[in-house]
Amino acid sequence: MATYTLQVTIDTSQLPDLKKSGYHLCLARKVGDTYNVIWKGDKQFLMSNEFQWTQRYRVFASKAFEEGTLVRAASNEEDIEYKQECLFDEYGVMQSARDDPEGKEGTFDIVNKYGIINFAVSAEVNGEYSVIYNTPDAIKGNVALTPINQVRVWFGLKAETGTMFVDISGEYIDVKYGDKYTKEILYDADGNWRLLG
Fold first, then answer.
1. 64 is in which domain, residue-wise?
2. N or C: which end of the chain has fewer CB within 10 A?
3. CA of 58: how far to CAs of 24, 55, 108, 130, 133, in Å?
4. Quick one: pLDDT at residue 158?
5. Which phi and psi (to 5°) does residue 182 adopt?
6. What is each CA distance from 197 to 76, 80, 125, 172, 183, in whole angstroms?
7. Nearest one of 97, 88, 79, 66 to 162, comparing CA atoms
């Protein structure tokens, strides 16, 4: 299983103001065409910061989407991989993943037998699972989820890991992964994000 790495370098001239103002270094992962949960909100950032992950995911039922609040689980979490599905049964239990014969590459499904509810996805980063997505609306039927190896990076205030958001104020950079598993970005002396490689 491939390991993806993101190296985030911050010009030292920017560190004092960012720290004094209470900013967090934030990462979000794209699911479908949406970023809506802070995957990592790190206030202990330094000049050089490294984030690593593999394609490991978990799914669970969650409380309703509410901007500015933390994602809260409403069920147990289960590991899932691409081309698999988890049954969320009529009792509100997330069953173990099984292979989906009709599954698409890059996608996994939740078969919802419970009723109208939200679902969330967490993904591993630096050895810990953090939420990357919460469905914006409660879902009645089944849901297909497509995590994409694209990361949005920015500095946010009151931006804890697991916080749901709709929009980001300020500068950000989107880092897309393809054949290359390592990317490097710089927050320069002028307060601009740049992709280095």
1. 4-195
2. N
3. 25, 10, 10, 9, 11
4. 84
5. -125, 130
6. 39, 31, 20, 17, 5
7. 66
DSSP letter string, 109-157:
EEEE-S-SBEEEEEEEETTEEEEEEE-SS-BSS-EEE-EEEEEEEEEEE
> Which is higher by pLDDT, 197 or 41?
41
pTM of the predicted structure, to 2 decimals: 0.95
Q: Is residue 72's pLDDT more than 80?
A: yes
Q: Which of 64, 113, 66, 63 is nearest to 85 (CA)?
A: 113
Both tokens of residue 86?
A: 């988890």
Q: Do 194 and 185 form a contact (C-beta atoms < 8 A)?
A: yes
Q: How many domains does the chain have?
A: 1
**Strand order in 4-10's β-sheet?**
48-53, 4-10, 182-187, 193-195
d(CA 189, CA 128): 31
pLDDT surpasses 80 at 197:
no
